[in-house]
Every structure is written in structure tokens, then in C-alpha cells.
TrEMBL record:
UniProt keyword annotations, A-Z: ATP-binding, Cell membrane, Ion transport, Iron, Iron transport, Membrane, Nucleotide-binding, Transport
Domain ABC transporter: 25-261
PANTHER family: IRON(3+)-HYDROXAMATE IMPORT ATP-BINDING PROTEIN FHUC
Protein's name according to its UniProt entry: Iron ABC transporter ATP-binding protein
Membrane topology of the entry: Peripheral membrane protein
GO biological process terms held by the UniProt record: iron ion transport
Subcellular localization, as worded in the UniProt entry: Cell membrane
InterPro entries linked to this entry: AAA+_ATPase, ABC_transporter-like_ATP-bd, ABC_transporter-like_CS, P-loop_NTPase, Siderophore_ABC-ATPase
Domain of life: Bacteria
Native organism: Streptomyces agglomeratus
A molecular-function term among this protein's GO annotations: ATP hydrolysis activity
SUPFAM superfamilies the record matches: P-loop containing nucleoside triphosphate hydrolases
Length: 294
């Protein structure tokens, strides 16, 4: 059985990548909350170099917060995040940005900016404020534009693009950071099915070509089961399930994490799990499923 994208290649190290010492990402006993609201509680997660991991769960379960903690945009109230052996708390914001890139779920409009100008913003961590003033693309920007297939759009205005086109450009901007770790927060939000598949297949291809470690938040469990090496399910700020899709994507996961009754089959060609959600569960049914997620 083969998964989409084929076998991972070793690839040459990127200038922004740091040789891994242990897992690429280690989240160790991390808790985080806002005043009056706990978001994450004692979360442990290891992501090995080269893995593609999908985070799933209901809105508010802590998926996006976990990505922001790994990206260094938030600091845990307890525990720590380690990138390639280094405690994130000891790294500056700019040093962290040289190691991990985060594609946010949404981004403000960028009127008056071309595709080339937006993608160049990804070079800030490497080039600094003065370096950003230099004209022209460096090799990393040119590669990012080419790898995502948007080099021909370089002089187009970003606000003239469709949603799917803008998402590809934002992915190129993240690649321009030239990091070894790529975090994607709901990269398919607001996209139609065609563009969802286009973005996810591009991520899988780039993971292989660039030897990236990828963690992405997805709402569609079917996409997670098809494209990820591992699925990590969050519920109530804790890890409820973690493992390969073939093992953990079950009717119990649908019920206990996503709150729906449903069935799980197998794709006849690729072999990955295929989900058939039937109906939302009532609150009393959710309680019965609390201890049956494996």
C-alpha cells in the first residue's frame, strides 16, 4: 500500500535547517491558558524529523494554540517546547523564525503588494530589516516561488488573486523562511475541494523534496487520514489519541473526539481510512464515549 506522495527522500540540508538532535519537535508537559480559561493541560508530543503530523479536534480544543507555542509566538505556563534539542525559551524570536515557519489560519489583506513582495517578507528572519530593502529576489525566494508554482505570478497584485491562489502564495512566503519545520494552521480553510487537494498535495510534495517536518491543523479527518503519517487528536486541551491513521481513525475517534456517530472504511486503491459521518451525538452519548478512544 502506498500513501500519497510516495517515499520520502533524504534531500540536502537547507541553509536555515538545524541538524536534529533527537526529535525535531518535543512538547514536554506543556500547559497554557488565558485569564479564566485553560486551553492546554500537560500536553506531551514528539514529532520526528521528516514526519507529517495532522492535528485534529473540535474548535477550541487547543490545536492552533499548540502551533503558536511551537512557533514561539506564545510561552507555556508550564512545561517546555524543544526544537532539535534546544529549549525554545532560550532562543530569540528571530532565531526561532530561522528554524520554524508558521502559516497562519488567516492573514490580513495586503492591498498594493505584489506576490514577489509578499513572498520576500518570509526572508525577514534571515536578512533582517536592512536586508529586506535590497532589490530583487534571492535564490531562496526564487526557489519558494518556483516550488509552489507561482513564479509566473510574481508581478500580480496579491489582492487580485483567488482564495486558492493566495493560499499558495502564502505557502511560498512560509517556504521563503527556509526552515526545517513547517507549521500549517488549517491551510485548506475557505477553499473549495479542488483547491484543498491542490494545497495538500503541494505540502506532501514539498515535504519530500525539501525533507521538511510538517505539523498541520486540519478540520477534515478524511484529509488527515489520507495525507498524514500520524494523526494527533486533541480533546479538552489534552492529547486524546496519537498514532498512524490506519490504527486510530475509528468510529470511537469520530464519537469521542469529533462528537459524531459514523463509520470508517478503507479506500480501495490507497488503503487509507475513509470516514462516513452519520449524525451528531447528543451530550449524554458524548459522555458514554469519553473512555473509548484508542
Amino acid at each position: 500500500m502506498s500513501r500519497p506522495g510516495g517515499v520520502r527522500e533524504s534531500g540536502a540540508a537547507r541553509s536555515g535547517a538545524v541538524p536534529a538532535r533527537g526529535p525535531a519537535i518535543a512538547v514536554e508537559g506543556v500547559s497554557f491558558g488565558y485569564p479564566g480559561r485553560n486551553v492546554l493541560a500537560d500536553v506531551d508530543l514528539r514529532v520526528e524529523a521528516g514526519e507529517l503530523v495532522a492535528l485534529i479536534g473540535l474548535n477550541g480544543c487547543g490545536k492552533s494554540t499548540l502551533l503558536r507555542l511551537v512557533a514561539g509566538l506564545l510561552r507555556p505556563s508550564a512545561g517546555r517546547v524543544v526544537l532539535a534539542g534546544d529549549d525554545l525559551a532560550r532562543l530569540s524570536r528571530r532565531a526561532t523564525a530561522r528554524r520554524v515557519a508558521l502559516l497562519h489560519q488567516s492573514a490580513p489583506a495586503v492591498p498594493g503588494m505584489t506576490v514577489r513582495q509578499l513572498v520576500k517578507q518570509g526572508r525577514y528572519a534571515a536578512r533582517g530589516p536592512l536586508g529586506m530593502l535590497r532589490d530583487g529576489d534571492d535564490d531562496v525566494c526564487a526557489r519558494a516561488l518556483g516550488d509552489v508554482g507561482v513564479a509566473g505570478w510574481s508581478d500580480r497584485m496579491v489582492d487580485s488573486l483567488s482564495g486558492g491562489e493566495r493560499q499558495r502564495v502564502r505557502l511560498a512566503m512560509s517556504l521563503a523562511q527556509d526552515t526545517g519545520v513547517l507549521l500549517l494552521d488549517e491551510p485548506t480553510t475557505y477553499l473549495d475541494l479542488r483547491h484543498q487537494l491542490e494545497v495538500l498535495q503541494t505540502v506532501v510534495r514539498l515535504r519530500e523534496e525539501r525533507s521538511l517536518t510538517v505539523v498541520m491543523v486540519l478540520h477534515d479527518l478524511g484529509h488527515a487520514a489520507r495525507f498524514a503519517d500520524r494523526v494527533v487528536a486533541l480533546r479538552g486541551g489534552r492529547v486524546a489519541a496519537d498514532g498512524p491513521p490506519a490504527r486510530i481513525v475509528t468510529p470511537e475517534l469520530l464519537a469521542g473526539v469529533l462528537g459524531v456517530a459514523g463509520r470508517v472504511g478503507r479506500d480501495p486503491e490507497g488503503g487509507w481510512p475513509v470516514c462516513y459521518p452519520d449524525h451528531p451525538l447528543a451530550p449524554e452519548e458524548l459522555l458514554r464515549n469519553d473512555n473509548h478512544i484508542h
